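re: ur question from yesterday

yeah so i grabbed the chain u mentioned. its 413 aa long if i counted rite. heres the sequnce exactly as i have it in my notes:
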Amino acid sequence: MHQKGCDKLGIFTRKKKEGVTQSFDFISGVNPMFVPFGSNVSNSEVVKICIDRIASQCAKLKPKYIKTKEDKTVSEKSGTLSFLLKHKPNDFMTPYDFIYRVVSLLLLNDNVFVYPMYDRLNGQLKALYPLKPILVEAQRDNIGSHYLKFYFGDGSDFTLPYENVIHLRKYYSEHDLFGGSGSQGNHEAILKTIQINENLLQGIDNAVKSSMQIRGIVKMNGMLSEADKKKQRDLFDAALNDSFANKGSSIIPIDLKSDYIPLTTDPKLIDKETLEFLQSKILDYYGVSVPIFTNKYKEEDFNSFYESTIEPLAIQLSEAFSLGLLTENEINRGEEIIFFSERLQYASWNTKVQAIEKLMGLGIMSLNESRALLGLEPLEGGSKRLQSLNFVDASKANLYQVGKEEKENENND
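ran it thru and got these structure tokens back, copy pasting raw so excuse formatting
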């Protein structure tokens, strides 16, 4: 690892690999530099809400370090990695904060980089940090190893082996390494719509303000000195303020020495359909429907949102963290990191009850798992599983149906 500047958090403690690094081009010939682009779109209120809706749902995912045995049984592994994933990714974030930040940076920049910090003495994993660089440069040394050089806002830069970085991408098509267009996030496709939407909202704000401005002019007939003009204006202001304070009205009488000349203002407001059309284009870009955006969704709306937006991110997180934190031998032994979703938590009460009736009868859910689904406290001894006697092992179905004795008689004959 090559570094320059002060590591204020002390998180870059990976041992340095040998070899001279230099910037390189991939097969596509695209610039190997990545510049985060999110600052341009994150100013939009609609974009912020969309990202929050997605990131907050992803943050409910439960990362688990599991092992699938040869008999297909799954067990959760214990140890430092499990603790970091489930309880404390680093000194500054809860698991919810960690996943929320990772997904938010991915949606803003089409790329997100997570750095696993290892103990420099014993090599054990200590923490996981999402990075927020201002520039990332792909490099390769003279022995063929790949690196990423990160530049940060405080002037520091760090070069890390690519294999030591967890890298997630969105819109991964144009560049061989980075998501988006490679040189920057690929938000150009929606940025114009966002700018039009923001301009229209500003126009509405200006129209409202203009309707509250001067609506007319009071003309004083006759030649007045500057002192008399000021006196007449003060009298007019006092009469207007008194009328508004005491009568709730802004209408006052004037005498023949004054003429009132109205000023016509006709601010143009944008129609509702145009605003909804522009907003829908932004929502479609992020995969957020109107019911999800307004938090007024039904079970069907959430299921669609989960399958189209949340589930792909859960798969991406699982694959990236498995490859970034586990060795090839561990993966071959059936070990992996899965971001599980307690999807039924968001179902309706009737759906939950129906699911419990079906799953408990098959012995899939325990008593406490069923109670947790309904928001109830666990019971002592509630980890046992119940199963209906209406189900039988498929290999023994004939014995159950015609009886063991009859089959034995047939064998004797």
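noticed a couple things. The CA atoms of residues 101 and 396 lie 52 Å apart. also The longest strand covers residues 111-118.
anyway ttyl
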